[in-house]
């Protein structure tokens, strides 16, 4: 028996072979953690989404199962659809267009910049990214404040309330500022993977800067662009920082989906309905991730 | 088209001088090699001709046109890079046609031209493939075809054979020489491989530290290296460079011109044509290729240390009282390690360099 075990352990050197029990022992702790902190809450949310559970009152003590009523309600609900629309605008404006394009332009420009200039810009951009959300939220509240705000002081427009007048526009600008660092770093790495000789070949053929970009650089970093777009889309889609700045104000005009869920669940006390929306959001996330994996696989 | 450089200097941002007031004239239709060890400036020189680097000072002409400040795309030169730099997302046909596309040649015409150029380089059946689906040799031919498609006046090749495996390299070498001969376009190539330069080029510039140390035909560079650096660099087996001293001749030939050179205690006659250039007491370095050392009754005495089989010959390393000496012996004549051998230079094959500056002592 001992002899047999030894043989099986030896076979374990080969990928795909080996002792199952031994292998299982290694993954069980991780599986337990995943179950406790990911799968159980997800199942709990799934269950709550089927009830009329509330934070206080009768339904808090004795929630009733209402089936798919929450989901049908959500899909017909104007507030939910508005929040979803704002979120898509937020993702499109600040991530897919804003961070992507600005990050690429920064990476492209800094490539040929002097060393000190590059270090300076990279540090500043990175700073926006690594500062804690609470700190940047406060910075931007102060920056765009109607009374004594920095932007108003610069533009000589005292009393102008940017957060009130243009809540989504301000959030988009804020998120571009906050998140561009990641795209910039990813594109910097991507650009360094384009062989200089390919760019030089194009230059020798007489290609202009734009033609080099179109014919050599962009096709060369297609995979990176895709990865970046999907990652920042997911992050922006789930971003809760807007709550720290606007709390969804004025009148829900800046409530992106995570903020809307929070407002519905806690101050709104409708936990069952909020769980249903959370699940819809989870499904959208899953679809995005699936699309991402599929496209990556096709490339490979 | 002729390429002329006048006093071209290139100093990089870090302060490194890659080209040091270099002047050079490459004739129309010539196959020209820039040869040297890494860091000698040969690639910088090629890239300066291409326009990928701009000369810090000096001037560069292609034909009669001063192109010192002209951007690369407007110089009418084409370059094949060491890694071929094919565009991985384009087919072979699109790669070859790319320079034409930039020049706004119509789609039908550039397709036809790409097909014809590809055909000429036996790429006919591969036009719709991607570079990743080609072998190294095929990729190189695609790169050559792309360079040829726009019919440039000068070809620049950066280490054209270094990415091929040993067997293919010889084939490609022959192919490249024939292609250049057929096209008759001025071609400059960079290599660190002296055998490649000797085999391909009409003329070779041997470079060191941003300067040309010798400029000449392969025969000149091989037979009469102008200095100790070139002597040590050219030749598949390194030349023996032995320190010596000019001494008065002994015995009955001891006239004023009967000097000899003392190398490790052995006296060698001074080559007749440079007898007037040496006086006793001069320190010299004697250069003699292993191929031109022969066994003899007397001469430099040494013990056989190592025998390396080179195929038709063997390279024998001798330990002497001075520096070790190498010679080649024909196959079947290999001595046993430990044997004692006497060797002398074949007549007329001895080169004498000044010890102080390493320059060849030439006939007056």
From TrEMBL, chain A:
The lineage of its organism: Bacteria, Bacillati, Actinomycetota, Actinomycetes, Streptosporangiales. It comes from the Bacteria. PANTHER family: BLR7065 PROTEIN (PTHR43005), SPERMIDINE_PUTRESCINE TRANSPORT SYSTEM PERMEASE PROTEIN (PTHR43005:SF1). InterPro entries: MetI-like (IPR000515), MetI-like_sf (IPR035906). One of its GO terms (cellular component) is plasma membrane. One of its GO terms (biological process) is transmembrane transport. Residues 85-292 form the ABC transmembrane type-1 domain. It is found in: Cell membrane. It holds the Pfam family BPD_transp_1. Belongs to the binding-protein-dependent transport system permease family. This is Amino acid ABC transporter permease. It is a multi-pass membrane protein. Keywords: Cell membrane, Membrane, Transmembrane, Transmembrane helix, Transport. The chain crosses the membrane at residues 24-47, 88-108, 120-141, 271-293. Coiled coil: none annotated.
Automatic annotation (TrEMBL), chain B:
The keyword Membrane applies. It comes from the Bacteria. Keywords: ATP-binding, Cell membrane, Membrane, Nucleotide-binding, Translocase, Transport. This is Sugar ABC transporter ATP-binding protein. One of its GO terms (molecular function) is ATP binding. It holds the Pfam family OB_MalK. InterPro entries: AAA+_ATPase, ABC_transporter-like_ATP-bd, ABC_transporter-like_CS, ABC_transpr_MalK-like, ABC_transpr_MalK/UgpC-like, Mo/tungstate-bd_C_term_dom, NA-bd_OB-fold, OB_MalK-like. The keyword Lyase does not apply. GO terms for cellular component: ATP-binding cassette (ABC) transporter complex, substrate-binding subunit-containing. Residues 3-234 form the ABC transporter domain. It comes from Actinoallomurus iriomotensis. One of its GO terms (biological process) is carbohydrate transport.
């Amino acid at each position: 028996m001992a002899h047999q075990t030894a043989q099986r352990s030896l076979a374990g050197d080969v990928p795909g072979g080996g002792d199952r029990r031994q292998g299982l022992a290694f993954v069980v702790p991780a599986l337990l953690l995943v179950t406790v902190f990911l799968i159980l809450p997800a199942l709990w949310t799934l269950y709550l989404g089927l009830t009329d559970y509330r934070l206080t009152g009768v339904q808090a003590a004795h929630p009733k199962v209402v089936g798919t009523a929450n989901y049908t309600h959500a899909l017909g609900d104007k507030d939910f659809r508005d929040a979803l629309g704002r979120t898509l605008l937020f993702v499109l404006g600040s991530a897919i267009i804003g961070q992507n394009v600005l990050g690429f332009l920064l990476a492209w420009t800094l490539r040929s910049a002097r060393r000190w200039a590059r270090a300076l810009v990279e540090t500043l951009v990175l700073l926006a990214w690594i500062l804690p959300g609470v700190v940047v939220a406060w910075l931007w509240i102060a920056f765009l404040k109607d009374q004594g705000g920095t932007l108003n002081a610069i533009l000589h427009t005292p009393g102008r309330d940017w957060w009130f007048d243009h809540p989504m526009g301000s959030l988009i600008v804020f998120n571009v500022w906050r998140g561009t660092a990641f795209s910039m770093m990813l594109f910097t790495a991507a650009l360094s993977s384009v062989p200089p000789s390919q760019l030089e070949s194009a230059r020798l053929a007489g290609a202009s800067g734009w033609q080099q970009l179109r014919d050599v650089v962009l096709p060369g970093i297609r995979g990176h662009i895709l990865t970046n777009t999907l990652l920042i889309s997911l992050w922006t889609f789930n971003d809760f920082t807007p709550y720290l700045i606007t709390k969804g104000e004025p009148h829900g005009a800046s409530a992106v989906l995570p903020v809307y869920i929070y407002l519905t669940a806690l101050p709104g006390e409708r936990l069952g309905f909020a769980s249903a929306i959370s699940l819809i959001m989870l499904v959208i996330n899953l679809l995005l991730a699936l699309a991402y994996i599929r496209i990556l696989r096709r490339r490979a | 088209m002729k390429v002329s450089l006048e006093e071209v200097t290139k100093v990089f941002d870090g302060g490194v001088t890659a080209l040091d007031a270099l002047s050079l004239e490459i004739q129309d239709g010539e196959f020209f090699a820039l040869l040297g060890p890494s860091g000698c400036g040969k690639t910088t020189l090629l890239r300066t001709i291409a326009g990928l680097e701009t000369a810090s000072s000096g001037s560069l002409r292609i034909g009669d046109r001063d192109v010192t400040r002209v951007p690369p795309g407007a110089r009418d030169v084409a370059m094949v890079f060491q890694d071929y730099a094919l565009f991985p997302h384009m087919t072979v046909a699109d790669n070859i046609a790319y320079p034409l596309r930039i020049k706004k040649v119509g789609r039908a015409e550039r397709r036809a031209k790409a097909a014809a150029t590809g055909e000429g380089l036996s790429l006919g059946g591969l036009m719709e493939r991607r570079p990743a689906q080609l072998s190294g040799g095929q990729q190189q031919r695609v790169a050559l075809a792309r360079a040829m498609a726009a019919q440039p006046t000068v070809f620049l090749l950066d280490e054209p054979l270094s990415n091929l495996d040993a067997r293919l390299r010889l084939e490609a070498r022959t192919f490249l020489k024939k292609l250049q001969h057929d096209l008759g376009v001025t071609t400059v190539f960079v290599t660190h491989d002296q055998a490649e330069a000797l085999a391909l080029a009409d003329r070779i510039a041997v470079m060191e530290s941003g300067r040309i140390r010798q400029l000449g035909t392969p025969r000149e560079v091989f037979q009469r290296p102008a200095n100790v650096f070139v002597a040590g660099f050219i030749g598949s087996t390194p030349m023996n460079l032995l320190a010596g001293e000019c001494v008065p001749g002994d015995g009955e030939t001891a006239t004023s011109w009967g000097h000899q050179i003392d190398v490790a205690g052995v006296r060698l006659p001074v080559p007749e044509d440079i007898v007037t250039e040496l006086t006793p007491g001069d320190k010299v370095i004697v250069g003699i290729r292993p191929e031109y050392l022969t066994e003899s009754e007397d001469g430099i005495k040494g013990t056989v240390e190592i025998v390396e089989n080179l195929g038709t010959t063997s390279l024998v390393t001798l330990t002497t009282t001075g520096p070790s000496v190498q010679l080649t012996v024909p196959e079947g004549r290999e001595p046993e390690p430990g044997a004692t051998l006497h060797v002398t230079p074949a007549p007329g094959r001895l080169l004498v360099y000044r010890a102080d500056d390493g320059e060849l002592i030439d006939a007056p």
